[in-house]
Amino acid sequence: MLRWLVIGVGDITAKRVLPAILAEPRSRLAGIVTRDPKKAEPYGVPGWTALDDALAEAGADAVYVATPVFLHAPQTIACLRAGKAVLCEKPMALHYAEACSMQRTADETGRTLGVAYYRRMYPKVNRAKELMAAGAIGRPVLAEATSHDWFHPDDGSRDWLLDPKRAGGGPLYDIASHRIDLMNYLFGTPRRATGQLSALVHPGEVEDNATAVIEYDTGVRAIVDVRWHSRVLRDEFRIRGTDGEIDLTPLNGPTLVYPGAEEHLPAHQNLHYPCVENFVSAVLENRPLRSTGATALVTDWVTEQVTAANRRH
User: Fold this and answer.
1) Nearest 5°: phi and psi at 193?
2) Tens digit of pLDDT for each residue in 73-99?
3) Domains of the chain and CATH, by start
4) ω into 25 cis (within 30 of 0)
5) Which residues neighbour 269 within 8 Å (Cβ) at sequence distance 6 or greater?
6) How confident is the model at residue 156, as a pLDDT?
7) pLDDT tens digit string along 19-43?
8) Where does the pLDDT of residue 155 fall: very low under 50, low under 70, confident under 90, or very high at 90 and above?
């Protein structure tokens, strides 16, 4: 049995993370760390405002870090040093150096560190991986992903995402990170990365659009374009090869199209559940962890290359 402490009760935590932990049969919720302890009452568990007290008193084996990005590194490191396994929300940290320090602490303490890039668990993503290995599109050469939406919280909800000191950046950190991680998952080690970002429609301290270009050791080039200023929703993901194309559009839908066939492979109703389940199996049964600190920090490296390239321009 894995006893969980959850830090932060925001929108995703309430809708997905806590339900996933409560539904996972080998998991028990031991407590919640939140600025408002009353948020723990509906779950019938203790609530703490101080992480150190919770780590000392909750009797937890694992911690889910679901706070804004600027807290990921210090809270994850504190939990690892307290002997807990940690599953951290994405992106891993504000900076690549912070992400490396998180992984270094996991190595030093011998504790499991995972990052919640749950799209690695999508059945159709893994089917696409199988198809590429089987040569369904020849040699993969180009991958393209777009995620376009309208996000400008005038009402103050989730406004921390517009603060670079708390979120790191805009859509590059928030939604591109998932797609960059998938590119790394599918194509291996990035050789170099560059990109552009700007505040085009929503002026502010973070960008409202970003384009990342990544080249892999395999020779594949990936393009990830994300926008918070589009009233037309887009969720595209395509892999082009010398002999055909795999189309996962929309990425969050069930459809997978490839030469000569179409399959429907829906994700779990709770997108976080397979991620939590995989983490529990890794901790309790030493099963392979699909999204580790070591794999996630590569996404932070790409993000840092893109932001650095933008500063140079």
Assistant:
1) -150, 150
2) 999 999 999 999 999 999 999 999 999
3) 2-118 (3.40.50.720), 119-267+291-312 (3.30.360.10)
4) no
5) none
6) 65
7) 999 999 999 999 999 999 889 999 9
8) low
